[in-house]
Amino acid sequence: MEVARRRPPPDAAAMGLHLLPTEILHDILSRLPPSDLLLLLRSVSLSLFSPFASSPDFLRLHDSLHSSSAWLFLLHKHWPTHFSLRALSDRSTHWLRLPLPPVHDPYLLAASGDDFLFSSNSHRELIEYNSSSRAYRRIPTGPLGRRGSDSWRRSGLKLVPGPAGSGRFRFIFAELHQGKPTQFEYCSDTDAWRSVEAEEAAEARPVDGLLLNVVNFEHESVLMRVGERPTVLRPRFNDGSLGSDGLHVYGWVAVVRSAEVAGEGGRVLKGVDLYGLGSDYREWKMVSSVPKAGRAFSVMRGCLEEKGGVKVVLLSDFRGSRDIIWLCYETSRCEWTWIPVPESGKRGSNMAGMSLSSGLGLRSIVGGRKNGI
Questions:
Q1: How would you list the strands of the sheet with 157-161, edge to edge?
Q2: Burial 289-311 (b: 16+ CB within 10 A, else e)
Q3: What is the pLDDT of residues 192-234, one digit of tens each?
Q4: Which secondary-structure segment (H or E) carries 39?
Q5: For residues 210 and 156, what is the distance between their CA atoms, to the nearest angstrom?
Q6: Which PANTHER family does the entry link to (predicted)?
């Protein structure tokens, strides 16, 4: 594991760490975000960190203190065959470089905790990878046959890990199949797929569990509540706000407002509107808006995650210049936070997928390296 940007602390500060009592050092290190922890410890003697890197108690404590951290993952493609997976926490200003499984021509579809889902463009297959154990599994071909990366709708799929250390997981996605909303699910326990046609919700009632986006129309979204008996919801945009730039996932929707830039061959980002499901689950309701974004772009993609608030990431490109906007809406305080994003990698590389998640464990970052880091 390497930190994308290394700025070693002054030697005096590094020497001071050696003089601290073990208990105080333990407390300091456990509170540092993973990327900052590695940045610090790569500048001092490895013997200082070895007792902690090999201590299950320290790893558990660190993971518990940082379990709510949000992570942004970007897969860079450096033509023709070199790829790099980078990770950034919302509590750090340094990117980490994570190891990759042996996947030919990978594309990052989803992430959840220490687990990642990749598709192979050339082999048209799916690979699940656990960054903590370094174990990977090729998922058998699903009911819809072999698919390339472009066939997967990012907002309509979810990777659900099992208990930590179990190596178990489920992969679920929702699509219109033969004109009907259908849930497809792979379970690692059985190494098999199952598909279930969803039923229309008979009445408005509280919706618990996972919601996946099936398809979007101009004034209506089709959502699926995942379960043994999946059900369909059809919330409407009664104000006609959806348009063609909506980003949907998991029961919330972010609508990107933009305008054409005259003579520039691109668009300018005017703002982001966040919607949530109304009390009757049949209508989208405006929650909040981020005005005056003012960023120019020619191509834009995004992802959204709802956990401990709503995180929205927009990745854009304009004349070869890449820009990343990371927004967090705190539902309890009804306020937005802009998370600073440093340069993510070499210019000229192509993006091969992005994902938002939480709960990346320290073992995923330090495991597999000699002497722990």
A1: 157-161, 169-177, 180-187, 192-197
A2: ebeebeebbeebebbbbbebbbb
A3: 999 999 999 876 665 667 889 898 887 888 999 998 899 999 9
A4: helix 34-41
A5: 11
A6: BNACNNG10540D PROTEIN (PTHR31672)
Round to whole Å and give the CA distance between 336 and 334.
7
**Could you tell me which of 277, 276, 241, 244 has the C-alpha nearest to residue 260?**
244
Q: Domains of the chain (ranges plus CATH)? A: 61-372 (2.120.10)
The per-residue pLDDT for range 245-303, each reduced to its tens digit, is 566 555 688 888 888 876 667 888 888 889 988 887 889 999 999 867 677 888 888 88
Tokens of 163: 């208990």
Q: Which H helix or E strand runs over 89?
A: strand 82-89
- CA atoms of 102 and 179, how far apart (whole Å): 36
Q: What confidence tier does 191 reach under pLDDT thresholds 50, 70, 90?
A: very high
Q: What is the pLDDT of residues 117-163, one digit of tens each?
A: 999 988 899 999 999 889 999 999 999 999 888 888 777 899 999 98
Write the DSSP assignment of 55-83 as a string of letters. Answer: -HHHHHHHHHHTTT-EEEEEEEEETTTEE
CB 328 within 8 A of CB 336: yes
Place of tokens 């938002």: 356
* Burial group, residue 77, by CB count within 10 angstroms (0-12, 13-18, 19+): middle
Cβ 238 vs Cβ 199: under 8 Å: no
